[in-house]
Amino acid sequence: MAAASGSRSGTKKKNTASSRTKSGSGRRAQGKKAQNTKGIRQEERAIANEILLIAVFALCILLFLCNFGVIGPVGNAVSSVMFGIFGMVAYVVPVLVFVGLAFRISNRGNFFASLKIAAGILLFLLIGVALELIGGQAASMESYSVTAFYTAGADTKMGGGVLSGSLAWILEHFLGMVGAVLLVIVLSIICLVVVTEKSFVGGVKTGGRRVYESAREDAMARRERARQRRQETEKRRTEEAKEREEEEARRDARKILRMDRKVSGVMPDLTLSQDPKAAGAQDGPEPAGIRRGGPADAPARAQKRAGADPDMPVDPEKIRIHSAARKQEDDPGVTAKQKVTEEIPAVDPLEKSYRDADVFRDMKRMEPLHITLEPVGGQEEPEEDFRFYPTEGMEEEEEGWERQPDEAEPAHPYPQEAEKEPVPEPEDTAPGQEETPLPYDTGRADRPVQEGSLPGKAEKTVAAASRNASAKTEEGDAPRPKTPPRPYQFPPLSLLKRAENKNGLDAARELKNTAAKLQQTLATFGVKVTITDISQGPAVTRYELQPEQGVKVSKIVGLSDDIKLNLAATDIRIEAPIPGKAAIGIEVPNKENTVVGLRELLESKTFREFPSKLAFAVGKDIAGKVVVSDIAKMPHMLIAGSTGSGKSVCINTLIMSILYKAKPDEVKLILVDPKVVELSVYNGIPHLLIPVVTDPKQASGALHWGVAEMENRYQKFADWNVRDLKGYNKKVEEQRKKGDPDAPERLPQIVIIVDELADLMMVAPGEVEESICRLAQLARAAGIHLIIATQRPSVDVITGLIKANMPSRAAFAVSSGVDSRTILDMNGAEKLLGKGDMLFYPQGYPKPARVQGAFVSDAEVSDVVDFLKNQAIGNVYDDRILEKVKSMEGSAPSSAGGGTEERDPYFEQAGRFIIDKDKASIGMLQRMFKIGFNRAARIMDQLADAGVVGEEEGTKPRKILMSEEQFEQYIEECL
Question: In which residue ranges is the amino acid composition biased (Pro residues) (predicted)?
Answer without folding.
Answer: 481-490
